[in-house]
Amino acid sequence: MLAERAAVDTAVRSRWSEQFCRALLSFDQLRDCQTIMAFYPFREELDIRAFLERARERGKEIWLPLTLQAERKIVPYVYTGPAMLKQGAYGIWEPDPDQAVAGHLPDLDAVLVPGVAFDPYGGRMGYGAGYYDRFLSSLSRRPLLIGCSFELQVIPQVPMEPHDIPLDYLATETGIRPRIRTE
C-alpha cells in the first residue's frame, strides 16, 4: 500500500490533497468541533497543511501529536504554525515542547487519524506501533474519529484486533462517508 501511494504522481497527489482539504473544511460534523487533533504530512501522506491553516483561521484549536518513542505514546500540543515544529521520531515534523503548550485532553472534540489502509467499517491499519490506539483508549471521552487517506488506500477489510478502535468516518479526496456499522 505504501509503495502504491508513493507511486502516485506528485501533481496528482497535490490535487487530491486539495480536494480532501475542501471536503474536510465543509464537513458539518467537523465544523461543529472546536478542538481538533490532526497530523503534519509525512512522506507521501495527504498534505493537509491547507486544512490546518484554514481551520486555525476559523478559530479552531488544532493540535499535533508528539511521539514519545521510549514511552510508546503520543502527546498532543497546540499547533501555532510551522515555526513551532521540529523533526522528531521517524522523521515526522512534530511540535517542539519547548515552543508549544500541551493540549488539555478533556477539550478534544475530533481526531484526524492518518494510516496506511482503511476500510468502510471503520477499520484502520496504522504504521504498526499502536500509538493512536493507545492514545484514543486513554481518553476519558470518545472524540469524533475521522480516518484520513487517499481513496487508493481504502481496501475491502482491514484486519481488526480487539484493542483496535473503529473510526466514525472516512475522509478521502472523493468525500467523507460514515463507517458501515455491522453490529
Find the CATH superfamily: NagB/RpiA/CoA transferase-like
End-to-end span in angstroms? 28 Å
The total number of structural domains is 1
Strand element count = 11
Radius of gyration: 15 Å
Helical fraction equals 10-25%
Give me the secondary-structure category: alpha/beta
Strand content: 15-25%
- The CATH topology, please? Rossmann fold
The 3D shape can be described as globular
CATH class: Alpha Beta
For the largest beta-sheet, the strand count, sense and barrel status come to: 7 strands, mixed
The topology string of helices and strands comes to HHHEHEEEEEEEHEEE
Mean pLDDT: 93
Spatial order of strands in the largest sheet: 3-2-1-6-9-10-11
Low-confidence stretches: none
Counting H and I runs of at least 4 residues, what is the number of helices?
5
CATH architecture descriptor name: 3-Layer(aba) Sandwich
Protein name: 5-formyltetrahydrofolate cyclo-ligase
Keywords: ATP-binding, Ligase, Magnesium, Metal-binding, Nucleotide-binding
Family: Belongs to the 5-formyltetrahydrofolate cyclo-ligase family.
EC number: 6.3.3.2
Quick tags:
about 180 residues, alpha/beta, Rossmann fold, 7-stranded mixed β-sheet, 11 strands
